[in-house]
Amino acid sequence: MKLAYLAPLFALVIWIGAPSAARAGEVCNETSFVVEVAKAWRTPEGLSVEGWTRILPGGCAEIGPDTDIEQYIYARSTAAYLGGVREWRGGQAACVDETDFEIQGVGDCEALGLQERRFRRLSETERERTILAELADFGNRAQEAGLQRLLQSAGYDIRTIDGYAGRRTRQQIAAFQTDVDANFGSDRIGLLQALHERALTRNANAGLQICNAARAPMAAAVARATGEGYEARGWWRVEPGNCARPLAMRLTNGEVFVHARLLDGAEERILADSDEIFCVGAGRFTTDRREGCGTDGFQSAGFRAVTSVNDGSARLSFQDEDFGEALR
Length: 328
Description:
- By secondary structure, this protein is mainly beta.
- The chain has helices spanning about 140-155, 165-180, 190-205, and strands spanning about 1-5, 10-15, 25-30, 35-45, 45-55, 60, 70-75, 85-90, 90-95, 100-105, 115-120, 130-135, 205-210, 220-225, 230-240, 245, 255-265, 265-270, 275-280, 285, 300-305, 315-320, 325.
- About 15% of the residues lie in helices and about 45% in strands.
- A hairpin with a 2-residue loop joins strand 17 and strand 18 (about 265-270).
- The N and C termini lie far apart (about 45 Å).
């Protein structure tokens, strides 16, 4: 059984290994990403949720309760990578926090300032050992693929993520060790951890963050310049006091535009000073249209240019007074 998630340039899946004599509750990471894992399980008081356990590429960890208890899993890549968070998920709603947490019997995530994520239910045999994988199916090459991806994310010249340690990979590892004045030798775990910290420092705040300082939920869409025109994408729902990160890439002034709507009861108020027109869809959408929006379910919407980019990043915070007239 597979669960597909399509992210920019990637198609990620959960693949569940065959029954084995593995330790109870083992989760193994055969992806090229450092992942953070949460598990949920049924109790008399309701759904218990626990996270986050960080697992390096090629590594495993024991997570959650005994295998005779019904349970669910959710995983995400860390903020070390550009291009957005990759997720491994399912259909069961459960509450999570951004940092390490333990929650029991909570149904209303918003009331406690928590976020809702969709967990995948594990069968009885899947509870023994779960393997997180990509379509590339790195298998026992996951650790090497993870090193390559972290080198690339940390700014080193890696062009292919294939899990094979070629000359370029060895050269870039040597360059990193020179930069940090360290020699990890055969300590691949230490090298992965050091590269991950370097990539986190470089990328965790890169891109565009949209924060909601208003009193009602907000829906946001973004448009950005591409090589041959523009691409608009949406929607991100941002609750009061929360932020979304719709773009995880290094930005320049004038190439990114934002559309936001304050969902104030039955009324939707539009972000003021939004005079750049792009097409938006009624539901989740991606489009390269700027004209002829009135077909195929699209409509014209005003976007505001982002002019506050600093070192490749921008953080926008919108309050009630930033929103003007209601959408008609």
